[in-house]
Write a structure and sequence with these properties.
Helix content: 25-40%
Strand content: 15-25%
Mean pLDDT: 85
Radius of gyration: 23 Å
Distance between the termini: 24 Å
Structural class: alpha+beta
Number of strands: 14
Largest sheet: 5 strands, mixed
Order of helices and strands: HEEEEEHEHEEHHHHEEHEEHEEHH
Number of helices: 11
Length: 355
């Protein structure tokens, strides 16, 4: 029932023009820097997109879908990724580096070494960079768009071993190597937001992912026979969870499996329903979300589907009253789908805060 309610709430938010929630084929990413690429394919500048504060926070941006990844060589993301993939370098604490690479120095290229850290190119980062380049050529080759051609020139011309020779990289190297994500700015526009690139991405990536779309069963959420998600997206922002995120539905041991069904095929949920419930749950758990409250070690989310102004504000009223403009009357989108009830949500928050 909870998953069904999340899927239904995603549909409500997706029909609300005032809400920024990822559409199928896209997801939210915390982006720290924009790489400024010239028409000749050269990295000319790096712009810090983080918000100022006690600790700089990355900017939340809608980017091409970033599925959860794992393994020795996790796959790259499209037009938004981190240092290992974009530049082909990584860093480690000196002790970790010596323990891991002390006997295999011939396999790596050390770019910088001090008493604390080592910046280097390894077989893993070379492979990550190679996969990043291959992915973009597979999707962007034969495109005449000048911005696309400039980007392809950049990834073809970049040499990981010469990374620290770029003064802009060196300026932000500590933040970049700490796991920052990048987008690409060409001629003053983010490449992933280009209409031609979006059309290309959407035509090659339906909401049903290629690798998981071969098994069709009855979806426990919709009741329809649809392609079933083999693995589910990670849920971010859960207190005490791993940095990669938490899994709401999954089977990580054969003892939990039955009838020969592996992984999430034990609880068949369609790719479309999986996208909706994970996307909306990540939205509810975002930093600064008004739909989230931390109660002890428990991350609590809440929402209101009704357009009547009673439940949501009732919760917030008891906990942390916030002056917001009152809304009156039922609110519906153009196609008749109800929008989120902001006042009722506030009410629920207030009640939970009092608890």
């Amino acid at each position: 029932m909870i998953v069904q309610s999340l899927v239904r709430y995603y549909d409500i938010l997706a029909g609300d023009d005032t809400v920024k929630i990822s559409k199928p084929g896209y997801s939210q990413a915390n982006v720290s820097f924009a790489l400024i690429i010239s028409a000749a394919g050269e990295l000319t500048n790096i712009v810090d997109l983080r918000k100022d504060g006690k600790k700089k926070q990355p900017k939340a941006m809608t980017v091409p879908l970033q599925k959860s990844r794992s393994g020795k060589y996790p796959p790259p993301y499209f037009l938004c990724d981190k240092c290992e993939y974009v530049f082909g370098v990584e860093d480690l604490k000196l002790k970790d580096f010596e323990r891991k690479w002390g006997d295999s120095l011939n396999e790596i290229k050390v770019l910088e070494k001090n008493e604390k850290d080592v910046i280097f190119v390894s077989p893993r980062t070379r492979e990550c960079f190679k996969q990043f380049r291959s992915l973009h050529h597979s999707l962007l080759d034969n495109q005449s768009n000048n911005d696309i051609q400039a980007f392809l020139k950049f990834i073809d011309g970049w040499t990981p071993e010469l990374t620290l020779q770029n003064p802009k990289f060196s300026e932000y190297k500590d933040e970049i190597l700490a796991g920052a994500f990048f987008v690409f700015d060409i001629e003053g526009k983010y490449l992933h937001q280009s209409p031609s690139v979006r059309h290309l991405w959407e035509s090659n990536n339906s909401p049903v992912t290629e690798e998981n779309s071969h098994e069709c069963f009855q979806c426990l959420v919709s009741g329809n026979t649809e392609p079933i998600a083999r693995t589910h997206q990670k849920i971010k922002g859960v207190y005490g969870a791993q940095s990669a995120g938490a899994t709401l539905i999954g089977f990580n041991d054969p003892a939990f499996e039955s009838y020969g069904k592996e992984q999430s095929f034990n609880a068949p949920i369609s790719e479309s329903a999986m996208f909706k419930y994970t996307t909306v749950l990540n939205y509810l758990l975002e930093r600064g979300s008004k739909n989230r409250i931390q109660i002890g070690d428990t991350s609590t989310v809440f929402w209101a589907e009704t357009t009547k102004k009673t439940c949501e504000n009732l919760a917030h009223f008891f906990i942390d009253p916030v002056d917001e403009p009152e809304e009156s009357g039922e609110v519906e989108s153009k196609d008749g789908i109800k929008k989120q009830d902001l006042q009722t949500r506030q009410l629920v928050s207030d009640i939970l805060q009092k608890v």
